[in-house]
Every structure is written in structure tokens, then in C-alpha cells.
Design a protein that fits this description.
Blueprint (H helix, E strand, L loop, with lengths): L3 H14 L10 E3 L11 E4 H6 L9 H11 L6 E6 L3 E6 L1 H9 L15 H4 L5 E5 L11 H19 L3 E8 L4 H13 L2 H6 L1 H18 L1 H15 L3 H24 L6 E4 L4 H13 L3 E3 L5 E4 L9 E5 L7 H16 L3 E7 L3 H13 L8 E6 L2 E2 L2 E2 L2 E2 L3 H18 L9 H18 L7 E2 L2 H4 L7 H17 L16 H10 L2 H11 L3 H20 L7 H25 L8
Parallel strand pairs: 5-6, 5-11, 6-7, 11-12, 13-16
Antiparallel strand pairs: 1-2, 2-4, 3-4, 8-9, 9-10, 14-15
The structure holds arginine (ARG).
């Protein structure tokens, strides 16, 4: 059990300072390992104890550190306790480290390694609604939608792994003037055949063409307005065409998301909240929050002292509602329907202001749960292009990643005979895309670079997949080696200890990821793990070693493979067995 040591050290501290063990669980940190360097395993900062009120903030900190160290007696588990500058370092028994960490892998695999940890127990659990992807029907699926898709999926996976009940929701842009144009355009430029064959493409073409024509042609403009008015009045013919467009689009998207290994529990959309949006306007009015502007629009004043410096428009002068009005209605209806404990929206940073306003208005309406709504925003991707040009559809990106990866695999002489190379190329290509996207802080913009992300060496998703496949092959080649029991003292080489020390940090990395919902902690953990595994591959051969050494090493490799695979899955990557 990975948290065995954290608990032991916490108990020791609790005894010395007459506090409960729980106070020390979150303040102990696993020391990140530097390659090939002997180091202690856990660290405690006296500064943190002071700021948490566990120790008095007065007096000389170094003296306090040394006094505390003097009170802590090493034992057979925690062998060495030393004072640093305002820090205490703990080193645990090496053989016990191997024994406890690899304990869960008796069957070769453990799906909850690190997850049943005392540290993660300190987190609240409940129902989390994650809204992500949310493309607009008949419009472009841009890089922002792709980022929302993979980031939202990561957040949902993480929350689920940590024991929450997760609802994955896609909130489609399935209402608005674009449907007026589509409706008016379909009778002119539409083709039922094409709509069946390639629906996303065809709807997009109709939309673009009608939009262009409408600029010069008043008739089309009028027809579009007319069609949208019919929709707003729920006229059956218009509604049935709209329904068809929506259904076809959702089915197509389901297909594509499946390629990405992503599913949604709910396909909602703006269209569901038309009528409720009108009710929201009425409620705001009766609460005295709605003001009518000179232009006849309905606005809410969000500026701190009512000077109208931050106003948000909720209906146009003709009474029709807007994007934000529908979002208010949608949030309220989700709360009623799913009674979530928290809700997370994932979109690019251009919508930061929108979500701030949304949460503020919800609060002003008396919905205190809006404090548990959160917008996770991310930066822009520049230069996402395929060989045929600018990306318009999600499928284009997936096809391109797959094709490029397949090409690289065919060029490489380490590629194995594969039953389904296309499938492998798709999974590896996706992991390249995901790792490139997740490596830095989400807020940063970055430049999309096919060649760099698909490199086999270096910190890429391809490298993660390669490491995983290599471990699978090692395990397979040594199928005859029994690893149910092993002698932990055979893992005393520094290379093996390094892998173990790194695995010790897994729960902390998940904890960090949970705190700020940034995938970079986990990605960098897995990349580093893969580098340590590469050294272990070189220096700790299984074949040709004495049986008990071979056994212990193989057990280590099995543990490492299992953690690598679990971490990859949380990121939204499907590990491959062979490549
Ligand atoms: N469909 C929107 C867009 O493409 C994103 C929706 C985000 N979610 C929301 N609840 N507003 O920009």
C-alpha cells in the first residue's frame, strides 16, 4: 500500500506534537526524485506547520526544526530522520518500500493503486457534472472544441477515479440564427443523399453558402429570418427539419467521439432552454434585477455600486433571449435534474467573462450553489492544420494523426507485426495529440506541431505508448516467471529504488491534479516514470538473472506498467500492447 509510509510518519509526528494524525497527512510531501541520486523519501516543511497553526510561528525556525527532529525516533520503518533548512527529511526502509509499494501487484495489475490513499481520502466526494466539447451544429469544430473535448474528458476521468459520481454532458450549439440559414438554405442547396453520406460536411457547406448568398440576396435573408421565427414558434414542419439536422449531427459525433474513446451521458443543448430562458427573464424582473435600457434591451447590472459599468444583456429589444440567458436556464435546470455538488464548464479563455457573469447572476438570483460552479479555461492553439488545409471537422484531425503515425510506424524498424496497424496508429496518434496539449499549463497558448508531437523519443505521447508496449512485451516474454511472491531485498539497486520512489508520489500527483484540474502534473509524472523505466530496462535485466532477482525485477516492471496504464487512461489515452 502506497500510503503506508505517509500514515506511519504522520503517526510519529502526531505523537510528538500531541495532535491528530490527520493534521499531517496533507502536509507531508514525497520528494521528487532526481535521476540516480540517493535521496530521502518524504519531506515536511516547518513553515507549513507554522502557517497551519500546528506549531507556533514565533521563535527561530531552525531551532524548532532541530527540536522536533530530536523528538522523532527512527525505527524499522522510518530509518532516518534529518533536519534541513526549516525542513525535516524522512527516509524509509528500502526493502519495506519495495514490499509495500509492489504489494498491490500480486496479480500483475492493480486498478486502484494510489487511489485508496489517506491523502485522497481528505478530498470531498459527490456528484460532479462536467460539461465539455459542446460544438455548434453546422459550424466548424475548431481547435478550441478539440481542447475542450480532451481536457473535459480528463477532468471527468480524474473525478471518476477519485470516487465521484460523474455526469458527462455535451451542450450543443443547436439553436440560433444558423438554423434559420440552414432551414432556408436546405431547400435551395441541400441534397438528401449528401446529408446521409457526409452530414457534418454537407450541413456546413449549406450554412456557409447560404450565409454568403444572404449577404446579397434579401429574399434569402428574409427566408432565413422567417424559418427561425417558425422554429421559435415550434411550427411542426420547421421543427421536424431541425430535429433531423440535430439527430444526424449527434449520431455522427457519437461515432467520432468513440474513436477518441470518449462518451457522453447527456447530449443537451441550447435548444432545450428556450422557454425556460423566458422564465429566467421574468424571474429577474420580479426580483428587481432586470433593467430596460434606452435601446429596449433587458440588462442586469453587475457593477459593484450600480454604476452600470459592467452590464450583461439578457434579452434583445424584440424580447428574444441570448446565449447567456439560455446558460442561466440550463444551469438551474441541471441543478434541479442532477442535484450536482459541483459543475465544471470547459471552454477556451475567450469565454471567461461570460462564465463570470453567469455565476454572478445565478448568485444574485439566490442560487448559492453557483459558488460550486467552476469554469476551467484554456489558451488558444495556433496552426492546427492538416495536409489538406485548415481543420474544419474533428474527424480531419483524427484522420491526420492516424495517417501520420501509420507512416512513421512503417518507416521505423522497431515496429512489430500488428494485427490491426490502423487501430494502433490511431491510439498512438491520439496520445501524441493529448500529451502535446497537456504538457504545459492549460492557460497557455501553444503552437500545434505534428512533427514534434509524433517523435518517438523525447517527451511525447508516442514515448508513453512505446514504454507501455515495451513493458507488455517484457512481461509476455517472461510469462513463465512466477511473481506472486517476491523477495523485496532483491530490489536494492538505485535504479529500482528510483522507480519505486517515483511511484510513491502517484497519489500526491493525483491530489495536485485534482486541486487545480491541470493535467500537466500527471503527464509529467508519467513521462518521468517512462524515463526511469528506460533506465531500469537497461540496468535491471530479467533474463539471465538468478531466479529470485528475475522475479523481483519482473514484479517491479509489472507494477510500473500497471501505474503507467492507469495514469494514461485518466488522461484519456488507451495504452497499446504492441507497436
Ligand atoms: N457551443 C459553445 C461554443 O462553441 C460552447 C458552449 C460552452 N458551454 C456553455 N454552457 N456555454 O462556443
Amino acid at each position: 500500500m502506497a500510503c503506508f509510509f505517509r500514515r506511519k510518519i504522520a503517526a510519529k509526528l502526531a505523537e510528538a506534537l500531541q495532535q491528530s494524525d490527520d493534521a499531517f497527512i496533507p502536509v507531508l510531501t514525497v520528494i521528487p526524485v532526481l535521476k540516480k541520486q540517493q535521496s530521502a523519501d518524504f519531506r515536511l516543511s516547518l513553515g507549513t506547520l507554522r502557517s497551519n497553526g500546528i506549531l507556533p510561528s514565533s521563535g527561530e525556525i531552525q531551532l524548532q526544526t532541530e527540536n522536533l527532529v530530536a523528538q522523532l525516533k527512527p525505527d524499522s520503518v522510518v530509518e532516518d530522520i534529518t533536519a534541513g533548512h526549516g525542513l525535516i527529511n524522512f527516509r524509509v526502509n528500502r526493502s519495506l518500500l519495495a514490499e509495500k509499494l509492489l504489494e498491490p501487484f500480486a496479480e500483475g495489475e492493480s486498478h486502484n493503486f494510489g487511489l485508496n490513499s489517506k491523502l485522497l481520502d481528505t478530498l470531498k466526494r459527490g456528484t460532479t457534472l462536467v460539461e465539455f466539447s459542446s460544438p455548434n451544429i453546422a459550424k466548424k469544430f475548431h481547435a478550441g472544441h478539440l481542447r475542450s473535448t480532451i481536457i473535459g474528458n480528463f477532468i471527468a476521468n480524474l473525478k471518476q477515479s477519485l470516487g465521484n459520481n460523474v455526469i458527462r454532458m455535451n451542450y450543443l450549439g443547436d439553436w440560433g440564427m444558423q438554423f434559420g440559414l440552414l432551414g432556408a438554405g436546405f431547400s435551395r442547396f441541400g441534397c438528401t443523399e449528401k446529408l446521409k453520406e457526409n452530414p457534418l460536411q454537407h450541413l456546413f457547406e449549406i450554412y456557409v453558402q447560404t450565409n454568403k448568398e444572404a449577404e446579397q440576396n434579401e429574399d434569402i435573408k428574409r427566408a432565413a429570418k422567417d424559418f427561425f421565427r417558425q422554429l421559435e414558434q415550434h411550427e411542426s414542419q420547421a421543427m421536424s427539419l431541425w430535429q433531423q439536422f440535430r439527430e444526424i449531427t449527434v449520431n455522427e459525433y457519437k461515432h467520432i467521439y468513440k474513436r477518441l474513446g470518449i462518451h457522453f451521458d447527456v447530449y443537451g443543448g441550447e435548444s432545450f432552454h428556450q422557454d425556460q430562458a423566458q422564465e429566467v427573464v421574468q424571474e429577474l424582473q420580479s426580483l428587481g434585477l432586470l433593467k430596460i435600457s434606452d435601446k429596449g434591451t433587458g440588462v442586469v447590472d453587475l457593477s459593484p455600486n450600480g454604476v452600470m459599468s459592467n452590464i450583461c444583456t439578457l434579452h434583445r429589444s424584440d424580447g428574444t433571449t441570448l446565449y447567456i440567458t439560455r446558460d442561466i436556464a440550463a444551469a438551474i435546470s441541471r441543478k434541479e435534474k442532477y442535484s450536482f455538488d459541483e459543475m465544471i464548464y470547459v471552454t477556451d479563455k475567450s469565454q471567461e467573462n461570460h462564465f463570470n457573469q453567469l455565476f454572478q447572476i445565478l448568485l444574485q438570483m439566490g442560487n448559492s450553489w453557483a459558488n460550486r460552479c467552476r469554469h476551467v479555461s484554456f489558451g488558444l492553439v495556433k496552426g492546427m492544420k492538416t495536409r489538406t488545409g485548415e481543420v474544419v471537422f474533428l474527424e480531419d484531425v483524427l484522420d491526420e494523426a492516424q495517417a501520420r503515425m501509420l507512416h512513421n510506424m512503417n518507416q521505423s524498424n522497431t515496429t512489430k507485426e500488428l494485427e490491426n496497424p490502423e487501430d494502433v496508429a490511431e491510439k498512438v496518434g491520439m496520445s501524441a495529440l493529448i500529451v502535446q496539449d497537456f504538457k504545459g499549463p492549460l492557460q497557455s497558448d501553444y503552437k500545434f506541431d505534428w512533427d514534434r508531437m509524433l517523435q518517438a523519443q523525447g517527451d511525447t505521447g508516442v514515448f508513453l505508448q512505446y514504454t507501455h508496449a515495451r513493458l507488455c512485451s517484457l512481461i509476455q516474454r517472461n510469462e513463465g516467471v512466477e511473481t506472486n511472491t517476491f523477495n523485496p531485498s532483491c530490489l536494492s539497486d538505485q535504479t529500482g529504488i528510483t522507480v519505486l520512489q517515483h511511484l510513491l508520489r502517484y497519489d500526491e500527483v493525483l491530489y495536485q491534479s485534482h486541486q487545480d484540474l491541470q493535467p500537466k502534473h500527471l503527464v509529467n509524472f508519467l513521462l518521468k516514470l517512462s524515463h526511469f523505466i528506460a533506465s531500469a530496462h537497461r540496468e535491471l535485466p530479467v533474463k539471465g538473472s538468478p531466479p529470485h532477482v528475475a522475479q523481483a525485477r519482473l514484479r517491479l516492471f509489472k507494477g510500473a506498467r500497471s501505474v503507467l496504464a492507469s495514469g494514461m487512461r485518466i488522461l484519456g489515452i488507451t495504452p497499446v500492447q504492441k507497436m
